[in-house]
Amino acid sequence: MAKYLKKEDFIKLGYSPEFLDEYFSVQSERELNAVIKEKEYLRKYYYEHKKKDDTKTKTKHEQKNYYEKLKADPEKYNEYLKKKREYCKKYHQKIKEDPEKYEKYKKRDRENKKIYYRRIKSDPEKYKKYLERKNNNKRKARQIKTQEKTSENKEKIIIPKS
Q1: At what angle do helices 99-122 and 124-156 cross, to 10 degrees?
Q2: CA nearest 67: which of 54, 57, 76, 58?
Q3: Is the separation of the CB atoms in 125 and 118 below 8 Å?
């Protein structure tokens, strides 16, 4: 609990009695209370009438504008994606070196995936798009595997010319 000092305590600390008489007078208390009430009122007013465009929404809009500009220029966008991939690889390597951080990362990732899937499954249109994307990715992966197998087979079957 806070301990409040009295006038006598301030005199012991070396404050002048004239200053303390003025400080502890009824008029100064009224002034202090008025200032405190005004500050409380302003605090409540600002809290109730906060601007809708606070810094978080501004930064989100700035990020969207930045991404739109990047996507408009394909070369810069590809460079951005390349740098992002490199950064992600470095980040994952750094996390995998520390087992505790890696466990936290995996746990967070699982929770985020669960939340993401719940959101998607709650909206039927998003869920259809998700399934289409998933199936397309599977098809692409199969095509890549078959192409790799056929290219390996072609390399193995080299008929020497006589």
Answers
A1: 120
A2: 76
A3: no
Residues listed for the chain: 162
- When computed from its CA atoms, the radius of gyration of the chain, rounded to whole angstroms, is 34
Per-residue pLDDT tens over the stretch 118-146:
999 999 999 999 999 999 999 998 998 89
Evaluate if residue 155 carries a pLDDT over 90.
Answer: no
Query: Torsions phi, psi of 142, nearest 5?
Result: -65, -45
Q: What are phi and psi of 26, to 5 degrees?
A: -65, -40
Longest dimension (CA), the chain: 119
Q: What percent of the chain is predicted at pLDDT more than 70? A: 85
CA dihedral for 30, 36, 37, 38, sign (positive or negative):
positive
Q: How far apart are alpha carbons 69 and 63 in whole angstroms?
A: 10
The rounded distance, in Å, linking the Cα atoms of 20 and 6 is 10
Question: Token pair 């502890």 is at which residue?
Answer: 24
Which pLDDT score, from 0 to 100, does residue 156 have? 65
> What value does the mean pLDDT take over residues 85-107?
93
C-alpha span between 47 and 41 (Å, rounded): 10
Cα 78 from Cα 86, distance rounded (Å): 12
